[in-house]
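Continuing the batch. This is chain 6 of the set; chains 1 through 5 are on the previous pages. Same settings as before, nothing changed between runs. Recording input and output for traceability.
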Amino acid sequence: MQRVITIAVLVLLAAAVVFLFLGGSADEGLVFWTTDHEPDRMKIQREIAEEFAAARGGGAGASRVSVQPVPEQKLKEVLSQQIAAGMLPDVIRAGIEHVVGYERDGLLDAEMATAVIKDLGVDSFAAGALAPVKRGGMYLAVPVDGWAQGIWYRKDLFDAKGLKAPTDWPAILAAAEALTVRDELDPRYGIALPRHPGSQYPQQIFEQLAMSAGARLFDDEGKVDCDQPAIRRTVELWKKLSRFCPEKTLVEPAQAQLLYLTGKAAMIFYSPYILDDIAGMTDKKDNLDRPDLAKVTGFAPVISEEPGGRGAGYAQLVYLCIMKDAPPVAKDWCRHLLTDAYMRICFMSAGGKVPVRSAALAEWRKHPCFEAYDGAIPDLLIKGLDASGRWGFREGRAFPLIADVYSKHVFAEALNEMVADDLSVDETMKRIVRKMAPFLEEPAAR
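Output for chain 6:
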């Protein structure tokens, strides 16, 4: 449980309004940080917390849950400030790269997480969701949901040009060029790649493309290896594709989403959180290029460097992390989120929250958003999860250093500089190595 924030920490947090909620008091009950920080999702999560407290007798104290939003990109920074203040939340909803960082720093209560998983049944969870957090007979955190990234593309535009689905590098490059319309009044872009140096978004896309070329950021000894041919080839591909992207826009996820919805971009890499928007089920429905956009949208979750080659997917698995010194009620809260409240959690964004509990898949498939698409979309979302990999995990090994690499936005910065300043691939590779220098001598694996 959190205690009162000191004046020093308040001064540090005052620079960013988003941090000011991270107070707390002894009678606050359980403190739950969630990266589902959007207002509509916060409303649902707080309703779930109120119902949880009411079912346990209500009132102040341990049965209460304070749901506090923390954007994913700020999670490491905010937690570091809370640790410095001697305060930890009790449960954090976080991606797998954060979990291994918490393991390294000794912040997790694996015994409580393991108890939750065993109470619910180990076999009730997808094996792929448990594997990254399994350590012997223990589990670091409790899987809750996941999503697979891929290319969302306009099937109608591809068909009109006789283009192949964008499942390999030559097909992606050919489509990006063919579908770019250089019109000053109404430009159209073959693809929209992000150019935001302080975002995880470019890293996620680059990582999937690099994995499709066989790149591994960590070598067999667990050391960072960023100066390798496969990464260089991926940088070359990025530079080629950038010719068919918006020239003057620092594309963030929201901009990429809007470019696709309005028909300005024929392809974007995106998580399935966009599923509801394409289907016209959100406040973005008035932006749709055509009302049946979902029917003419395809999804390619697995990418290969060459046609017919071994493909790579990128997925984000999300966990409930029970932190050290959390009260026993933390287990009950996690169980509640994975049982009575589970479908409400998953239905906050059905595409972006694929259930990791097999018994929930049938109900998840019934979500209305899938009706707008052809019947293959749910299977493609699951396929993407099954075929996914991450640089931070390989063959039963975890590389906690990946959390630090992500937080420094090494690849996002270097790729943005390459495009903005028209740098050569050689110069970009030098900058990647230079930016990665603080990590090159650190042990990465465990």
